[in-house]
User: Which sequence fits this backbone?
């Protein structure tokens, strides 16, 4: 569908609106023949050039997205150069299609990740990079995108599920291919999510005309049954005992601190590891995240967790300094999976993952009779009527809940009673 012709300037381009019928609409320039701006239903805009090649076939060539440093003037200059080449017999759209038809899966993934540097959240980019490097490239990286079939996608799913992409371990059990991220594992959950991501990447090839259909679409994926590790305060006590024993033995202090922090707050692993001191608001008793899985967020934090952070905060720490720094204070600590594996083994809770500690925090709150809505607020889930209520400061009820839950877990970690204990004003305790 074509929009009304007009001189394309920054002002006119900014005013262009998507088609209300949900279709692509192209607005053409009145001065340069075939030069226009395509507007998608999502609002995304791109400079295009419409022309006929030497065989009379109509083509449309995408010059580039509006923005990304490409001004209307620069786009117009490119369009003029392209038209000059077309008059000499060039076919830029056909040449691009031929070139992209030979693109490999690895090259398409690299394009996706490069674009993701400016479009994705940091955590999303890390996870997608891991899935691509560990599963997609080893199994499909050298294949031409145009050659992929539905059968290839089904085999890819099976291979990831059965752990075919698990690399061989190097000396002393170290993962020689990915030394920082623990072992590469397969399974239904990993396979399902990786195929979903690959389908998104392959859709780019569909949009660019490399393939007509997305071979990953419509593939039956295994249902994910969320695993919640068995919880007990006895297990929490065992972890606390293991950490107290391991610190004087030389276990990594940053790792042990990160584990305790996760248990006291219910934060996600990367939320904790990338935490810097300016994020901690001691006055409002919260963490002010600039970016989380659900966007910018304020998270309530209990007094016990705040006291724990204060116990090791350097006096000369800058706001940008990481709370859990890596060796030599170069970046954040990345060795948590290995530290947790050793702690979990000592505590005999080896079936609990790092993310399982988040489930433990929720389970502790459940045992203390907090509602699902309150627990969702403590964990930072987007729940209407809970997280929406504290845009500038945490809700007082959530703060009170965070105080009690973190205090209870801290007491058990430090060797306190594991039975349900009710605390009354004045410090008196009664076993439930």
Assistant:
């Amino acid at each position: 569908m074509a929009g009304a012709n007009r001189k394309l300037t920054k002002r006119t381009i900014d005013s262009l609106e998507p088609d209300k019928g949900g279709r692509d609409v192209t607005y053409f320039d009145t001065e340069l023949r075939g030069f226009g701006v395509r507007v998608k239903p999502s609002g995304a805009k791109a400079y295009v050039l419409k022309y006929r090649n030497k065989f009379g076939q109509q083509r449309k060539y995408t010059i580039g997205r509006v923005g990304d440093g490409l001004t209307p003037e620069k786009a117009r200059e490119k369009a003029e150069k392209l038209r000059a080449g077309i008059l000499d017999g060039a076919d830029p759209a056909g040449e691009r299609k031929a070139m992209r038809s030979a693109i490999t899966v690895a090259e398409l993934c690299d394009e996706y990740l490069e674009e993701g540097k400016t479009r994705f959240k940091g955590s999303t980019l890390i996870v997608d990079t891991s899935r691509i490097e560990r599963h997609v490239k080893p199994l499909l990286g050298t294949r031409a995108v145009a050659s992929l079939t539905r059968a290839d996608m089904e085999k890819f799913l099976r291979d990831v599920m059965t752990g075919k992409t698990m690399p061989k371990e190097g000396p002393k059990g170290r993962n020689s291919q990915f030394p920082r991220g623990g072992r590469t594992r397969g399974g239904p959950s990993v396979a399902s999510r990786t195929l979903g991501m690959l389908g998104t990447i392959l859709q780019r090839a569909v949009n660019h005309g490399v393939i007509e259909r997305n071979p990953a679409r419509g593939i039956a994926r295994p249902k994910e049954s969320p695993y919640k590790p068995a919880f007990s305060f006895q297990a929490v006590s065992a972890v606390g005992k293991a950490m107290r024993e391991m610190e004087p033995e030389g276990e990594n202090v940053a790792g042990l601190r990160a584990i305790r922090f996760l248990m006291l707050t219910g934060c996600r692993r990367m939320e904790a590891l990338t935490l810097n001191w300016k994020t901690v608001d001691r006055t409002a008793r919260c963490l002010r995240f600039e970016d989380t899985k659900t966007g910018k967020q304020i998270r309530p934090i209990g007094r016990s967790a705040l006291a724990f952070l204060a116990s090791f905060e350097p006096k000369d720490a800058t706001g940008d300094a990481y709370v859990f720094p890596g060796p030599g204070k170069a970046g954040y600590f990345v060795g948590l999976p290995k530290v947790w594996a050793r702690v979990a083994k000592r505590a005999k809770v080896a079936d609990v993952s790092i993310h399982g500690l988040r489930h433990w925090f929720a389970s502790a709150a459940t045992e203390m009779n907090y509602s699902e809505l309150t627990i969702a607020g403590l964990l930072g889930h987007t729940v209407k009527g809970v997280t929406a209520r504290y845009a500038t400061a945490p809700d007082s009820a959530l703060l009170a809940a965070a105080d009690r839950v973190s205090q209870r877990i801290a007491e058990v970690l430090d060797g306190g009673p594991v039975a349900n204990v009710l605390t009354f004003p004045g410090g008196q305790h009664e076993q439930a």
